[in-house]
Structure prediction request, 330 residues.
Amino acid sequence: MKKQKAAIITGITGQDGSYLAEYLLKKGYRVYGMVRRSSTETFERIHHIVDRVELVQADLLDQLSIINVIKKIRPVEIYNLASQSFVPTSFEQPVLTGEFTALGVTRMLEAVKLVDRKIRFYQASSSEMFGHAPYTPQCLKTPFHPRSPYGVAKIYGHWITINYRESYKIFAVSGILFNHESPRRGKEFVTRKISCGVAKIKLGIEKELRLGNLEAKRDWGFAGDYVEAMWLMLQQSQPRDYVVATGETHSVRDFVKKAFSYVNLNWKDYVVIDPALYRPAEVHVLKGDPTEAQKRLKWKPKVDFERLIEMMVDADLQKVSDTIKPTIPA
Prediction:
């Protein structure tokens, strides 16, 4: 009987981690989620599969805990998705961001090197590494010019992954994922802030939506599509980094207009521009070139920009509606 493959996901309670866990379970993996010991358990995104995954305690700040978990599980694959990933917070907590998002990658790779160099390792890199890019679209040859402590930390994680691959012959790859959203996106991110705001305005709970720079342009895809690319990277014969993106760009204004029009509202009646919400250093345009991923991985996104917005607004309409339903006495 063929032995069931085991995989570890750091950041399993996040947006990407939850979709990846679902994907790997469908592939027949034993899925382990590495979580930090916390006084508050935040398993909302994986509540529907929590009985099918095993959560193990370890911390990206603690080398020994990572080594012990990997020794115990002996996975064939590790997906390092955990980080301090909210860009504005990285300006407020740059050192903590560096500890998790940069040095945390080194601790994971060092554990792989010490325990079993046959483990295949995926590192979640980010389009924020390109930042003030000299040209569009961005590909693996595009110079990095990060515009936030988060982007800087991700570059460290990206290059240390390459260094361990070249130095120790570990199958370690980085996926430079451009913006990917879903109904499970954190409410602090602008796309979810918009979809949630639209739902609250439509249902009469709020009267306005405060936003920052509407002219920033991003390459937005669906997180559920992007986790497939992560898995495909670890199934190749040779380790290689990839850009994962749609190859299309839309402004925040475009996102806002489509979200409001979906519920038959005029966005201009509700959106308020708040200069306090602008970044200290803005990233104006990010657009990925997914040619290599399409050619070598045979990967293509299935959910387009408009459908993504509809999914997010529908989900938030349902969530907000559920919170305002009157309680029926027993």
Notes: The two ends are 53 Å apart (CA to CA). The chain has ten helices and 13 strands. The first helix runs from residue 15 to 26.
